[in-house]
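Work Package 3 (structural annotation) set out to generate three-dimensional models for the target panel prioritized at the project kickoff. During this period the team completed the workflow that converts sequence records into discrete structure tokens, so that structures can be stored uniformly alongside our sequence database. As a representative example, we reproduce one entry of 363 residues exactly as it appears in the project archive.
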Amino acid sequence: MIPLLTIFSCQKMEENVQPTDTAILYTMPEESAPHEGTWLQWPHEYQYGVTYRNRLDATWVKMTAAIVAGEKAHIIAYDETEKSRIIGLLSKAGVPLTNVDFKIAPTDDVWVRDNGPIYVKDNTGQIVIEDWGFNGWGNKADYQNCNLIPSKIAKDQNIPKVDLDELMVNEGGAVEIDGQGALLATKSAILNKNRNPGMTQAQAEAIFTKYLGVTKFIWLKGKAGLEITDMHIDGFARFGNSETLVTMNHDDLLDWQVPEEDITTLYAATNKNGQAYRILKLPLTQNNVETAYGKKLDYKGSYVNYYIGNKNVLVPNYNDPNDAVANKLIQSLYPNRTVVGIDVRNLYANGGMIHCVTQQQPK
């Protein structure tokens, strides 16, 4: 079983402005920009067993229902048998299949945010798939099947692919971009001996400038070894849109083990033009999370790891009093979308929340 994505902390944040815009070849649209669709890797029995799969199915059904209301759901099924099973689950739940399509491909697990295709636009506005390296969060889990997913999707969709597999290991959950030239990330999840040994910060920034279109870098040192991702940023700090940084309130960041000095720096982060972001502070759950099957976890849940769809915003919920609080706060940020709470308790016991298992394909 994959270790938990449950505890994040950070050290002093550093901000650097590096290469000029002339180095940019590709630009990654910000998540709230219009989507063509959303990718999901459906849970299966072939890695962790039938019980694992069965405990997660309901979450995927609800995510699919929320996604297809405003865009396509691109579902990766392990094989044809799994595809038939998934169709049965969706049909039984009354989820229309009009906006659903399937890609048949073996996967090691469900974390498409980290192993899936990263869609960018080139300087002519054409959609391109970037295939970054994926090595199971530093060889901590099986990854051979998942590392092939971007290449397979690019071939099926007949979309040009930029092969970065040997250039840099980069998981989607490790980087946040505001769509206006700024990137937020932890060094521990990128400049790490188990991801990119020997890579310097300057080298990483040059790569990100060229392939993601960013020139302003907000680096957190992070903490390697705390959990499987070596502290992905999307568990506790995200760009809600190009002007808004979504994080937690002060006390909950402390509970999440974020040092006081980093909280101050996070709240003071500025964009490429030196302007302060609007800060939306979300709570943690009021209580430690308990799964739907009765397992008591010894940690609280984060609401920061939500996903912005075209019509609906999918927010992790935990059967907790703070679900309603977080849902209302997130709804205030997206007045033209509808917040849909998704029960992630069983998923959270295995390592992540909504953002970890979704990946946008922009229009």
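The chain is about 25% helix and 25% strand.
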